[in-house]
Amino acid sequence: MRIIFDAYELIQGQGKSLGIYNYAKNLLKALVEEIDDKTELLVICNSANQHDFSYQHPRVRTILVSATPPRKIARLIWFFGRAAIETRKLQADVYFSPKGFCPKLLKTLSPALKTVVIIHDLIPLWYAEHFPGYFGRLEEWFINNSIVSSTKYADRIIAISQATRDDIAARTGRTQGVAMIYNGISVPAPGPRPYPHPYIFAMSSTLPHKNAEGILAAYQAYRHQTDSPLPLFICGIETTAQDGVTSIKAAYASELHAYFAYAELFLFLSFTEGFGFPPLEALAHGTPVLCSDIPVLREISKGTANYVALDDSAAIGRKIVELLNQENSVELQNQRRAVLNEFTWAACAKGVLKSILN
């Protein structure tokens, strides 16, 4: 079986694009370990990502289709026809997209082709409901139309959480041909302690669904409820003048994970997520987590985090005080770390390959 692994559009950007890039890179590495002599992986890439998507393996072939990283026009050309043309040239049996979109004309040019698409989340549809036009009306229409079309018409969908699978069913009506396969989690060793005293750590971004304002409001509520508030270090937002808050930018994974590992508490108060890596990364270090009470975060944390509604900053502040006053025992730390056993790249690759071959 000849499987196209489409990494053509993937770039090491920021936020979600970086997350999907790392997902694809780690998944491919694990897939290479799983394929047998009846399976051939044809990895389509560009010059900028070739080093991360090339393998010296008899059943893996790298197809370089661009001498430069694809810009917007090149990506549109790929989506509306070039991907289908390249797929036909390669006489593939399966087209696999780790990005979440199924390009046009694939079935038109290759009628026997099967398509398999990873759906990371349906957050763009959430934006259309809660922040219409946030990314521009034309881009919103294009992205949402492409996601819905891919979700409805790909031969097989792989959702990265049960919450995403449920969202697909609720928003598109599709329940058949949808598998749920968790991501793997790679946790590097933390670097040196970043701050000599106890502190709280949070991750967010300037995107509305990450709820940076809610984190800052909850932290200020906490400060008003205790005589000796811990400082907050927050990654992902610009510098703020709020009391006790320091915005940080971690240059290396070990530096970021040092903030996770040595924090007294990790805050993550997103409105919506498809999976939610940061809480798991904190749990991997045994750090207590306070996060949004949304289905996906309950699902992936397996009951080892603490959950709060997002409509009452004062209540979140009280919960922060409560958790900081609790003992962080070795037993609790080990329970949190054990959650990571559910999320390995080997298990992810086995599940993805099974879905493709079936």
From TrEMBL:
Domain Glycosyl transferase family: 198-331
Keyword Oxidoreductase: no
Glycosyltransferase subfamily 4-like N-terminal domain sequence ranges: 20-186
A Pfam family matched in the record: Glycos_transf_1
Keywords attached to this entry: Transferase
Matching InterPro entries: Glyco_trans_1 (IPR001296), Glyco_trans_4-like_N (IPR028098)
MF (Gene Ontology): glycosyltransferase activity
Transferase among keywords: yes
Protein name listed in UniProt: Glycosyltransferase family 4 protein
